[in-house]
Amino acid sequence: MNNKHVKWIIREWSEHQFFVILLVFMTILSTSVAVAYPFIFKNLLDTLQKVIAENTAYNEAMEKIYRICWILVIVGVVKLISAFYPALRAMMNLSFEYVLRKRYFQYMLEKDFNFFLHFRTGDLVTRLTNDIQDFPRIGWFICSGIFRAFDSFIKISFCLGMMFFMNWKLTMMAVIPLPLMIVMFYVTSERLYKNFQKNQEAISEINNQLEMTFSGIRIIKSFVCEDKYKRFFHDALENRFKTEMKVVKINTFLHLIYEYIDYFAMIGIILFGGYLVVKGEISIGTFYAFYTYLSMLIYPILDLPQLFISGKQAFVCIDRLEEIKDYPAQHKTSESDLVSITNPIEHIRFEHVSFIYENRKTPVVNSVNFQVDKGQKILIVGPAGAGKSTVLGLLSGLYKPIEGNIYINDENIEHLNIDDLRQRIGFVPQEPSLFSGTIKENITFGVENPDMDLYYQIIEAVQIKDEIDQFTDKDLTKIGQKGLSLSGGQKQRIAIARALMKKPEILILDDITASLDAQKEELLWEQISKLFGDLTAFIVSHRLSSLRYVDQVILLDSGKVIAHGRHEDLITGHQKYQEFIFYHHLYSK
Fold first, then answer.
1. Which residue(s) pair with 540 in the sheet?
2. Residue 129's CB: how many other CB atoms inside 10 A?
3. For 376, left (φ over 0), alpha (ψ -120 to 50), or beta?
4. Could you tell me whether strands 506-510 and 425-428 are parallel, antiparallel, or unpaired per DSSP bridges?
5. For the whole model, what pTM was predicted?
């Protein structure tokens, strides 16, 4: 067992100290009761044999037998109490699963966007579900797996102790299989670890295929690619089948070896024990107890190697969870050093800001400089791949600059409480992300106690109310996964409404007006100005009509600011801006 895995398990146990101690006590109690039964019956059989051999008086004989029976009753009551032990283990399995899922999901939410570029959705789902749940994975192993092995160790120790006490010769026969089992484990353990790791990766690939298929079902059907995705899924499923079969074969081989080693050992002990009874070296009661203890040892002896086998599988899953936790995130300033935003945001300034994605060789944003004051509306334009969306991500704190600084009210964004900043930002991404809830839940998402008067004003402002009223359940209509039942324009307007419900000081719109016609766009800006007069807005758009509603324009190309100023000034005095306007077809009729 790797030291880092031991530390990980101890850390998890430390959060459930009371129940871990209770499990230890219940394990010892349960084992003690189980081991006591054969010894009591041995004494009962030996007493009966002695009574018959010595022709003991009836009253004296019955007194001895009654005494033993009362001991059996007491042990039975204790056994009834210890019967709750497996249920306690099962409850703790679920408790560990709950805690682990919650903790590692939190780790995921704390990561930056590079994390979600590195890990695919289906893989993350697998790590939070299949890697944690049930035998032989983490939730089962760190409770039932270990305590079953502990129970087996205690049972083996108690049984062997009693067996040595009764007859050391028979006991030596019983321990012969143990060295062979240990050798078999070490021969196969590394191979089992590698095959189980491949199997978990294959399961992740299956979930990735399912997630891609269901998320892109419209594209798949519109391009008549059902057969193609059947082949993709078939290949992934075949790979999973092969890896699972390898794991099953190794486990089956080990189980057969362990079971038949004990089977032949039992035959040998029965023959040798019978021989000792015939010779008179041991009594019938001792032989019965010895045989019973030997039967009790079979599954514990199998369980101990199984701890290492299931441990190898669980350690794969622990490593996969820790990979999530240890994936490098943006440097975070200590909470005590963060500055809270208490005053309204008066201005935003970029100074020589650069940014590069981890899988890119060149910066997406390169030494960008500009300043925006409160209430200004800025249109960011440029060719595809110019870095427009990345600038918006930097502004909202989703990305961290590799060079330069971003200032909010002259305070470096790195020193600000990012949650405070994001509470003041309404963000509408290029691809609107809606959740599998009602329209109302999606619009009020992120607002603890939504202002319902503002809610109805906003759905009027984004011109979605009439369309909502056409649904049977109006705004209580469930919209399906990612808003599957809505049009692109409806999803965009719901996303805008969601951003405005936060009463933001800064509104970020990433190329969302493409789903609005010119008349709706004009009405949208009129209503936004009426509801949020001094709102600062950053807009990415490919329509020239948006120029009517903004104060300044920033032209980006290859991550650099090529032009910055009023449209009226740039169109007459900046050659590159003129070329972009005329040659990139930004006019909207």
1. 380, 510
2. 15
3. beta
4. parallel
5. 0.65
